[in-house]
């Protein structure tokens, strides 16, 4: 046949074997770590003209495990010489070596890839066994494990393949609750690192307090207000209705008490670290609150926030009237403000993170690309993408793949104290 023969044109050109079909050598060395091991191994391999396909290395408590997946030398005799040379080099370095020949060792990782972040305080071996056992039972494979933090909680990230993300999330959520650890399961891909707007609830999330209860303490009706607040956060009462009922109890209170309330507000541990780190990474950060602008405006200035929305207590002649003015920020309102902030920030909703603890945060958590229930009520934990039940707000950074070491390194450069 000649080059213009139709039959010839219909035949596909022969394809060389793909990477997954090539014969490979897996070279593994392990032992006490010290500078120069990686360079030494590859200098040894370099003498045989092999190509590097993959490298993985981990150092745990001063012990190194280094794996190199390489193409074999051109001839059996050269391969034999490589094996002898690698083992001799390892002995000289007081290391152990293993060389395994295989085919198909460079197959792509399976579909259904997810990042599983586990937070424990403490993280027990039994919990790890239970969670990883669930992954195995579902037909998943743990491709990599990486520690994100050793304090104030232990945080590890598992790269899992072979199970759809939603299925894996549902599977592990039940086990995590039984093991008393927090877990987050998010799909792998660029979108995980593209979340560029974080919006938080304020009361019992960004701060440790319920602001209306601080005002109520000065009005002498703290217990009554606290009971209504708790019912609203559990989802037992309509938020807007409960807000009006609680605010009405503040009627006649001197508005000058606002300065005292601002001074009483306590930031949640890790709040400054979370915001500072996000801002370093170019994130925009906002708050949306069922509380009051009398306090949130102060927080905006204190923390350098980009966006804020809250209710406003009406003041006439220096006294609170017992009413709020303007649009009420309730459950639906929080989701609307999230969308508005995202539009102003020019960030798609799927690239947003929302953090909250109460039933009035649910619409916002569900609308965001990642919804995080922070020390939340049961109804919120069950509905959110993930839940964090330790009292440190900066643990949210681990869900985004940011390690404690990276945070501390950035703080050290700036001379900042983590808090």
UniProtKB/TrEMBL annotation:
GO terms for molecular function: hydrolase activity. Its EC number is 3.1.3.3. Residues 1-12 have a biased composition (Low complexity). Gene3D superfamilies: 3.30.70.260, HAD superfamily/HAD-like. Residues 26-102 form the ACT domain. Belongs to the HAD-like hydrolase superfamily. SerB family. PANTHER family: PHOSPHOSERINE PHOSPHATASE (PTHR43344:SF2). Pathway: Amino-acid biosynthesis; L-serine biosynthesis; L-serine from 3-phospho-D-glycerate: step 3/3. The gene is serB. This is phosphoserine phosphatase. Keywords: Amino-acid biosynthesis, Hydrolase, Magnesium, Metal-binding, Serine biosynthesis. Its cofactor is Mg(2+). PROSITE patterns: ACT. Pfam families: ACT_6, ACT_PSP_2, HAD. The lineage of its organism: Bacteria, Bacillati, Actinomycetota, Actinomycetes, Kitasatosporales. It catalyses: O-phospho-D-serine + H2O = D-serine + phosphate; O-phospho-L-serine + H2O = L-serine + phosphate. InterPro entries: ACT-like_dom_sf, ACT_dom, HAD-like_SerB, HAD-like_sf, HAD_sf, PSP, PSP_ACT.
């Amino acid at each position: 046949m000649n080059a213009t023969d139709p039959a010839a044109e219909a035949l596909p050109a022969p394809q060389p074997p793909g990477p997954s079909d090539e014969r490979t050598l897996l070279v593994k060395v392990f032992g006490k770590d010290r500078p120069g091991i990686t360079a030494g191994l590859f200098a040894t391999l370099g003498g045989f003209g092999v190509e590097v396909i993959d490298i993985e290395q981990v150092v745990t408590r001063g012990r190194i495990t280094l794996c190199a997946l390489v193409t074999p030398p051109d001839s059996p005799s050269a391969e034999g010489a490589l094996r002898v040379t690698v083992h001799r080099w390892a002995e000289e370095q007081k290391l152990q070596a293993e060389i395994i020949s295989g085919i198909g060792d460079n197959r792509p990782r399976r579909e259904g890839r997810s990042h599983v972040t586990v937070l424990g305080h403490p993280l027990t071996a039994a919990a790890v066994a239970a969670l990883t056992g669930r992954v195995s039972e579902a037909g998943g494979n743990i491709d990599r494990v990486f520690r994100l933090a050793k304090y104030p909680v232990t945080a590890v990230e598992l790269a899992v393949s072979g199970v759809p993300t939603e299925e894996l999330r549902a599977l592990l959520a039940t086990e995590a609750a039984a093991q008393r650890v927090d877990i987050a399961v998010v799909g792998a891909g660029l979108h995980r690192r593209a979340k560029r707007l974080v919006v938080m609830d304020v009361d019992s999330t960004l701060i440790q307090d319920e602001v209306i209860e601080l005002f109520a303490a000065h009005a002498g009706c703290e217990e009554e207000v606290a009971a209504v607040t708790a019912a609203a956060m559990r989802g037992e009462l309509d938020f807007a209705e409960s807000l009006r009922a609680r605010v009405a109890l503040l009627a006649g209170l001197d508005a000058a008490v606002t300065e005292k309330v601002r001074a009483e507000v306590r930031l949640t541990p890790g709040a400054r670290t979370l915001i500072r780190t996000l801002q370093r990474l170019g994130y925009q950060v906002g708050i949306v609150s069922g509380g009051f602008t009398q306090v949130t405006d102060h927080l905006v200035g204190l923390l350098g926030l980009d966006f804020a929305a809250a209710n406003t207590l009406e003041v006439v002649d220096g006294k609170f009237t017992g009413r709020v003015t303007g649009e009420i920020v309730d459950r639906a309102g929080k989701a609307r403000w999230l969308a508005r902030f995202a539009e102003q920030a020019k960030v798609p909703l799927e690239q947003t993170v929302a953090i909250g603890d109460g039933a009035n945060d649910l619409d916002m958590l569900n609308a965001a690309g990642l919804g995080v229930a922070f020390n939340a009520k049961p109804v919120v934990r069950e509905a959110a993408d993930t839940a964090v039940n330790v009292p440190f707000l900066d643990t949210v950074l681990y869900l985004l793949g940011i390690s404690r070491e990276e945070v501390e390194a950035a703080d050290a450069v700036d001379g900042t104290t983590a808090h």
